[in-house]
Amino acid sequence: MKTITVFKGDGIGPEITDAVLQILDAAKAPLSYEIFNVGAAEYERHGALIPDDAFASFEKTRLLLKSPITTPIGKGFRSLNVTLRNKYDLYANIRPAKSNTAVKTPFPNVDIVTFRENTEDLYIGVEYKMNEDTVHAIKLITRKASERIIKAAFDYAVAHGRKKVTCVHKANILKMSDGLFLDIFHTIAKDYPQIESDDKIVDNTCMQMVMRPEQFDIIVTPNLYGDILSDLTSGLIGGLGLLPSMNVGDDYAMFEAVHGSAPDIAGKHIANPTALLWSACMLLEYIGETAIAAKIRKAVDEVLAEKQHLTPDLGGSATTEEYRDAVIAKL
């Protein structure tokens, strides 16, 4: 039995977390949970975004399943996602987007894994107000961070039988910062002659991705572009409700849905828990429980294919609980 930390989060977070934990239990996943409320709602109740005992739990278990947390726009506290990634050096944000035949989109052949550098770039959040009309934001790119995310992408390609790694950048304009990232990519690519490598400017990548997404296999990119492009890949496969992710470092790993807390539908019991559930499957695979993860994935695929218990974001009318129960019935 493996103990993991669970953060319930804000908005739809508690609803989808409960559904996912019930599915994990039905699948007999060998997990026990230390569960905490975190985020804006927790701050309003007790004056702390993340309680000290929640941090202590993650530092003990080193495995975190985290549901969405609300981040204020343009004011207020800094993103807790960014805080956690930096505090625990979760430098690799891995977001797999794969078409599912049961979910109808114009793009049936998407199978893209985005490797997003997770600790620097504009996400360091360093801004200076130069005067009342001018703000200066710092973009940080370092050799250390670039090398380890690029190596992680190539190592993943080798381990998972992938064929190509594409570096996405804006080195035509940002010649020093993105230029450094691109130079490191080409140097490391030489150590993996069995893996095809190429690079694309980020704006061209966006166009190519919606015209011929099947040309992409693994993408590796600095923080900001990875955030944007991975959301784009979710649109190709049917929406953010289907995009899981993992954030890994040398010592800790955090698994989370890519989507936000969706306060507009919180409490309506119509949220799609699939992205968080598939993130939990990534956690299971990370700890070696691949058979149970495969069983859950198969159950989800069957429910999606039958189309009788789809949540509204997928064109259905089922509640979160009806979808949960359908997956459990398949298990």
UniProtKB/TrEMBL annotation:
The keyword Oxidoreductase applies. Residues 3-327 form the Isopropylmalate dehydrogenase-like domain. It comes from the Bacteria. GO terms for biological process: isocitrate metabolic process; tricarboxylic acid cycle. One of its GO terms (molecular function) is NAD binding. Keywords: Oxidoreductase. Pfam families: Iso_dh (PF00180). SMART domains: Iso_dh (SM01329). Gene3D superfamilies: Isopropylmalate Dehydrogenase. Belongs to the isocitrate and isopropylmalate dehydrogenases family. This is Putative isocitrate dehydrogenase. It comes from Megasphaera elsdenii CAG:570.
